[in-house]
Request: fold
Amino acid sequence: MTINQKSKPLLAVLAIVLLLLPFFIDALLGRGWVRIADFAMLYIMLALGLNIVVGYAGLLDLGYIAFFAVGAYCYALTGSPHLASAFPLLFPHGIHLSFWVVLPLAALLAGGFGVLLGAPTLRLRGDYLAIVTLGFGEIIRIFLNNLNAPLNLTNGPQGISRIDPVNVAGAPLNATQQILGVTLPSVHLYFYLFLAFTALVVFTSRRLEKSRIGRAWMAIREDEIAASAMGINTRNLKLLAFAMGAMFGGVSGALFAGFQGFVSPESFSLMESVMVLCMVVLGGMGNIAGVILGSVLLALLPEVLRHGVVPLQQALFGKMIIDPESLRMLLFGGALVVMMLYRPAGLLPSRVRRRELDTDEVAETV
Amino acid sequence: MNSISASPLLQFSSISKQFGGLSALSDVSLHIRRGEIYGLIGPNGAGKTTLFNVITGLYQASAGEFQFNGKNYQSCKPHVLARAGIARTFQNIRLFANLSALENVMIGRHVRTKTGVIGALLRNRAARHEERAIAERARELLDYVGITKPHQTLARHLSYGEQRRLEIARALATDPLLLALDEPAAGMNATETESLKTLLQTIRASGITVLLIEHDVKLIMVLCDRVAVLDYGKKIAEGIPDEVRRKPAVIAAYLGGSDD
Amino acid sequence: MEIFFQQIVNGLVQGSVYALVALGYTMVYGILGLINFAHGEVVMIGAMLALSSLNAMLGWGMPPLLALPLSLAFTMLGCMALGYGIERIAYRPLRHAPRLAPLITAIGVSIVLQNLAMMVWGRQYHAFPQMIANNTHTLAGAIINDVQIIIFITALAIMAGLMVVVHRTRLGRAMRAVAEDQHAAQLMGVDINRVISITFMLGSALAAVAGLMVSANYGLAHYYMGFLLGLKAFTAAVLGGIGNLRGAMLGGLLLGLIESLGAGYIGDLTGGFMGSNYQDVFAFFVLIAVLVLRPSGLLGERLAERA
Reply:
C-alpha cells in the first residue's frame, strides 16, 4: 500500500481537520464560504479527472467541461419535473430516479461520449484531439441551448430548475439535518458528500497512477513511439484515459446538478474548460497534490478578486476599470503561458523529481 | 527439434519500402537464425534503419513478405510485434525521460502482464503479486545490464552510456525472442564499447537472438555470426564477417561514400 | 431553386473568408507542424482594429475610398506585429519542448487576446460603417451585393498573390525549404527564425484582411467572433489537407458551401427538428468526418501521423 505506517497519524489529523473545516469556515468567514468550499471540491474532482487525460496520458482535452455537462443534464433531466412538463403524456410524473441510480448512469454516459469522441481522433496526432475536443465542447453547448424546440429536451438557455436534491439514507441534503445532536445546514451536508467523493477520486487517481495502466499512460505521454515499441497498445490506452477522465467529469456533473438544483448551458462554456485546464497546469500536470492545490487556488481566485480588486479599484480610481471576471480570465490566460514558459512542472515539484531526491528504493511502496 | 524451431526466427522475402517516389528498400531478402547475432551494416542512408522500422512495425512494407517465428506479420502495429517477441532500441535514444530508470524497465513488462483498471483500483492479491514481480524483474534487469546508479534516478539524468544500457534493459523486459539494437555503440568510448560487447554476448548466451545495426565495423566483425550489407536499399552481400569483408562490392560501397 | 443559388452565393463568399484564415493555419502547420490556436483571435483583433480605424478616419471626414485602404494597411500592420509577437513569446521558446506545451501557451494567448479585446472594445456588438452604396444584383435568382462581390474577388486575388510569393520568390523558396527539412534548410544558409517569423506575419496579414471582410459581410464585429471562425477555418484547412496551400483554399470554399447549404436545408432534412441555429455544428461534423475517413484531407499527401 502507498500509505506507510509513518503517515497514518498524519492522515488521521488531516481527516479530523477536514471534518471540522465547514464549522471553522462558517464561524470565521460565514456560511457563503462553505458553499465556495463545496464548489472548490467539485473543481478538484473535475481537475483530477482532466489530470488523468492531460497529466498522465499527455492528451490535451479542451472540451472537458462537456462531460461535466453530460453528467449534469443527465441528473437534471431524470431528477426534475422538466420532463413531466415537457412531455406530460410520456412522463406524467417525470422520472425522478434516485441520485444513486443516476450517478453511475451519468458516469457511463459521459464515458461513452468520451469513447465516441476519442475513437476517431486518438489515432491521430495530439493537436487534432485538442481541436476536436474544443469543437465538441462548443457543440454540446449549442445543442443544450437549442434543444428546446420543437421538442423541449433541455429547456434551452433558461436551463432546468427544481432538480431533486441528493438523498442520503432518505434524508434530503438541501435541508438542515440533525445528526447525533449536531445541527448540519445544507452546505455542510454537501460539504461532507463532496468530501467523500473527492476522497474517492483522489484514491482512484492514486491507485491508477501507481499501476501498470498508469505507467503505460505515462510512457505514452513521454514517447508514444517508444511506448508502442514496448508493446503498449497506445490507441486503447489513450481511449481508456479519455473515457476515465470523462467519467470523472460525468460524476462531478451529476453532483453539481443535485447541489445547485439548477443547470443551464451557461455553466458549461469554453472558459470553464480553460479554467479546469488551468488548475491542472498551474498545480502541476500529473501530480495529484499539485492539481488539488491548483484547483483550490483558482476556485478561490474569483472570490478574492471580487472582495479585493473591486474595492481596491474603487479606492484607487474611484471607479471600476477592469471587471473582476475579465481580470480573472486574463490571469488564467497569462498563467497558462507563464507556467509553460518558466515552470512547466507546476507549482508543486512533481512526484518523480521529489522521489529522486531520496535515494531509498521506491518500490517499497508496492 | 520440431520444424518451427528449426526454421529461421525471422524471414524477409523480397521486402520493398517506398517513400513517395523514393525507394528506401528494394527487394531485400534475408533470414535470421535462432540464437545468432546478426549484423546489419552499410553506409549512411543505405536503408538500415528503414529495414529496422519495418521489422519492428513502425513502417509497413510496400511489398514483400515478413515472417517471424513461423507467422506472417504483414502490416502489424509495433505493439503486436512486441507481443510476438521483437524488442528494439532506438538510434537516437528514446527513453521515457521523466520517469525513473526502474519505471522505464517496469513499462517494458507491460506486454507480459495483465492487471487492468479493476486490479489497479482494488489492488487485490493477484494485482499486488504481479506488481511485486514486475518491480523485482525490473531491478534484476537493471543489475543485469550494469546500471549501478540508484534505480530512482530519472532516465534523463543517467549518463549517455547508461541510457543506452537502460534501453536494452527495457527491451529485455518484454521477454523478446529477437532483440533488435539500432547502433547501440554510437557515441560510446572504448571502455563502454568493450562492456557492451560483453553484455551482448551474455544476452546471446541466454538464448536471445540479436539483430545489430552498427557503424563500428570492428565491433560487428568480432561480435556477429553473420552479417548483411545494405547499400542504396539493396542487399549487396551476406555471410560470415570474414567473407563479407573481402567482397569487392562491399569494399566499393564503403570506399564510395562513407565515413568509415 | 432560388434558395439553392442564394446559398451557393453566400457559401462562396463566406468560404473565401474561411480560405484566407485557413491559409494562416496551414502555412504555420506546414513549417512548424504546429496548430496556431491563437490564429482565430488574430482575425478578431483584425476586425476590431479595422472597425475602429475606419470609424475614426470617417469621423475625421476622410473620403471612404481613402479611409478603406489606409485602415486596411493599419490593420495588417497591427496584426503582423501581433503574429510576430505571439510566435516570439508563446511558440519560439518552446520549439523543442513537449508537444503539449505550445498548445497550452496558444490557448493562454487566445484567452488573453479575447479578454483584452473585451476590455478595449467592450462586450457589445460593433456595427460596420456603411461606406458605399451597397447595390444588390440578381444572379440566377440569387441576390448578391457589392460588398460580397468585392470580398470574393479580393480574396481570390490575395490567394493568387500568395501562390506567387510562395512559388516564385526567394522568400517562398526559403519557406518551402524550411517546411521540407528545417535542419537541411539551416545548413543551406536559410535563416530559419526569420522565415518562421515572416510566415507568422504573412498569415496574420491574411487574417487581418479576413477580419475586415467578415465584419463587412455581416456588418458586425464582436470580441468573441474569433473562436468559432478560427475553429471553422481550421476545419477548412484539415478538409483540404493541412500543410497544403491549395488545399486550404479549396477546403475554405467547400466548407463555406457545406455550411450554407446545410443551414438552408437542415430544416427540411430533419423535418423541422433542427433549424439554421445549428449552422455552427456543420463544421464540426465535417471535421470529424474528415478525420475518420481521410485524415490527410482532400489534397494532402503528408501523413497526418508523423513519426
Strands of chain A lie at 160-161, 167-168, 171-172, 177-179, 182-184, 262-263. Chain A is about 70% helix and 5% strand.
